[in-house]
Design goal:
single chain; mainly beta; 2 helices; 45% strand; globular
């Protein structure tokens, strides 16, 4: 997990914490949710307003982890009742957390006959509208074990979870549907296109081509932030994206791009090189300049102690203590 921001001197801050297969991400300025291989983590900001910790204006601490087992969780969101909703890709459904079980299913596509740990259609993306799950993307409408792998190029679809209807087909491995400015946006990952859905005509309207396999979409003001990944084995091979990159004499990148919604122009980008070759999700933290998080691989998480300012004898002041 990377937290990207600006230091006090205006230089880039890229704070990194390692988790086992970090994927789906949901964020507010005070709380983060992130899925990993077999857990869904909840992080809380430990700093008071205007408080700094080593120059950072947010300090996200992993406070809770729901052990779900390996559900291959993709998109994560929070509904109007503050319940966590996530895409359970392995079981081809939407689900929520349970204190007793690995998950509680809340919806499945109309073409899925039963919940089985078979990743039948590669359900992956979730768009919330008015605090409720509304639009979902899948790589195919397959109802057999891993059937989506044979439909990667053009079998993708968009489903209205409210009406239980498939409202758009012919997509290429779509991801990250998001509702913003009264418009449904998504990433047609197999073609490298960011665009929106004309719900009246049932068509996908491309806006911008990005050189990479697209996953992760967020918005801030007049801009969209799109995540890009480099190809991975045969899962990403044989897609229209390969030919488009070849024609443009370009190679796939890993990073994210900032797109001006009024023009479709890419106005800024950040690129990762080295070991990091894929991104899954991206979120925006409005009003946050430079954030960090505690991880699980150093003793810092053992030594940093915070005191609730509402507690008895705390004098109404939040405290952070670093144990020797």
């Amino acid at each position: 997990m990377f937290l990207i921001g600006l230091k006090a001197d205006g230089k880039l801050s890229a704070f990194e914490r390692l988790f086992d297969r970090a994927m789906g991400l949901y964020a507010t300025t005070e709380r983060l949710y992130m899925s990993s291989r077999y857990q869904l983590w909840q992080f809380e900001n430990a700093l008071a307003p205007d408080e700094l910790y080593n120059g950072y204006d947010k300090l996200y601490v992993p406070r809770m982890a729901h052990t779900t087992g390996d559900l291959d969780i993709h998109d994560v969101a929070v509904d109007y009742g503050q319940n966590v909703v996530f895409v359970n890709t392995l079981h081809s459904c939407l689900a929520t957390l349970s204190d007793r079980y690995s998950f509680t299913p809340i919806w499945q596509p109309p073409f899925i006959s039963r919940l089985a740990p078979e990743d039948r259609c590669h359900l992956n993306g979730l768009a919330m509208v008015a605090g409720k799950p509304r639009f979902v993307t899948a790589v195919s409408q397959s109802d057999v074990t891993a059937g989506w792998r044979e439909k990667r190029s053009s079998g993708g679809c968009l489903i209205d979870a409210q009406s239980n209807e498939v409202i758009l087909t012919g997509l290429s491995m779509p991801h990250s549907p998001r509702f913003y400015w009264d418009r449904l946006w998504l990433l047609n990952s197999g073609t490298g296109e960011f665009g929106y859905v004309d719900l009246d005509r049932g068509t996908f309207e491309p806006v911008t081509f990005c050189p990479g396999y697209l996953r992760g979409l967020a918005f801030h003001g007049d801009f969209a932030i799109v995540g890009l990944s480099k190809p991975r084995d045969r899962t990403f091979s044989g897609l229209p994206l390969e030919e488009r990159l070849s024609v443009k004499e370009a190679e796939s990148r890993c990073g994210f791009m900032v797109i001006d919604l009024s023009t479709g122009d890419i106005v800024h980008w950040l690129q990762f090189e080295g070991l990091i070759t894929e991104l899954y999700d991206v979120q925006v933290l409005p009003g946050v300049r430079c954030a960090m998080a505690l991880g699980l691989r150093t003793d810092e998480i053992c030594r940093l102690i915070t005191i609730d300012p509402q507690g008895e004898g705390s004098e109404g002041v939040a405290r952070i203590a670093i144990q020797p």
